[in-house]
Amino acid sequence: MTEITHVIPVAPPKRITAVPLRHPWRNLLAFGLIFLLIAFVLDAAQREAYDWPAFATYLLDERVVAAAGVTLALTFLSMFGAIVIGIVLAVMRETSNPVLRAIAWGVIWFFRGTPVYVQLVFWGLLGTIYQSINVGIPFTEPWLVLETADIIPVFWLAVIGLALNEASYMAEIVRAGLLSVDDGQTEAASALGMSWWLMMRKVVIPQAMRVIIPPTGNELIAMLKTTSLVTAVPFSLDLYTRTRDISAATLNPIPLLLVASVWYLFFTSVMMIGQAQLEKHFSKGQSGRSAAPRKKRTARGAGAIRTGATTSPETGTGSTADPVVPGITEGASDERR
């Protein structure tokens, strides 16, 4: 016997009323923090120790503005040297030559393992340790004798010290970025006949930049603040040391510290904006391509839940007709009732 089946219409699903989860303690904490912030600002505005008139006087003082420019020069020159040296060390770490690998590892180990302030002090004592540089054949009379203090200014000693310290960190950042690129990418580029330089420029580096840029931006911001340590060289024309010298003359350190902090915050904010733009540029095709379809699918699914509509897999259009479930016998229907 052939069993006769009936198509039983099923009632549309009820509309779901979503109630957001409430967080009363979280909201209370937020209001408490806002209250404390407002109280701190009001208190600081009327506290005499901050000396806001002196802060306004020295904020755009010629000496402070010039020191801010020197700080930027220290930051970018040191970071440029660190990136170049870091790339060389990263390539040496990945080479098959054991001597080059050992030298790169030793350089990174030394500069990462000693404080940057101690390194800057040593660079400041370079003229004491090596008073002159002799040019000529060893064990014979030198052809040329140069005084170390005359050929290397203090500014460049600070740049060299900061760059070598930062290069040890940049080497690991660059190496991590290169290792993040899948081996299949380089194998495919080699199969296409690309040279090493073309493969690095067109295939490896654009993909590695997504990994390299975020920590490099953080290191640039850290470098900006590390320039305040160049007084160990000693170099006294950077932003922090200059404001400290002015405060020593005026016997009023607090407003000058605020002036230096505002300049550092300004430079840091600009660098963060630039870092965000670079990250957005090099992440094209990685995350932005899949975000929009996901939002569309979510919106379509939400609409179906709210209205109880069904979507046809063939046409992709919604229908408000009651959904049906085939293959349910009348007896089964009675049991469900």
What are its keywords?
337 residues, single chain, two-stranded antiparallel sheet, transport, mainly alpha, 6% strand, Amino acid ABC transporter permease, MetI-like fold, two-stranded antiparallel ribbon
Strand-residue proportion? 5-15%
Residue share in helices? 55-70%
* Ends apart, CA distance between termini: 26 Å
The helix/strand series, from N terminus to C terminus, equals EHHHHHHEEHHHHHHHEEEH
List unreliable stretches of 5+ residues.
Answer: 288-337
Structural overview:
InterPro entries: ArtM/GltK/GlnP/TcyL/YhdX-like, MetI-like, MetI-like_sf. This is Amino acid ABC transporter permease. It is a multi-pass membrane protein. Its main location: membrane. With 337 residues, the chain is mainly alpha-helical. It has a domain of 228 residues: MetI-like (MetI-like fold), CATH 1.10.3720. Helix content is 69%, strand content 6%. The strands form 3 sheets. It has a two-stranded antiparallel ribbon. Helix 8 packs across helix 10. The C terminus is likely disordered.
List the helices and strands and how they pair.
Elements: E1 6-9, H1 24-46, H2 52-59, H3 62-94, H4 98-113, H5 116-124, H6 126-129, E2 132-135, E3 144-147, H7 148-151, H8 154-179, H9 183-191, H10 196-226, H11 239-250, H12 253-282, H13 288-307, E4 310-311, E5 318-319, E6 324-328, H14 330-336
Antiparallel strand pairs: 1-6, 2-3, 4-5
Short précis:
By secondary structure, this protein is mainly α. 69% of the residues lie in helices and 6% in strands. It has helices at 24-46, 52-59, 62-94, 98-113, 116-124, 126-129, 148-151, 154-179, 183-191, 196-226, 239-250, 253-282, 288-307, 330-336; strands at 6-9, 132-135, 144-147, 310-311, 318-319, 324-328.
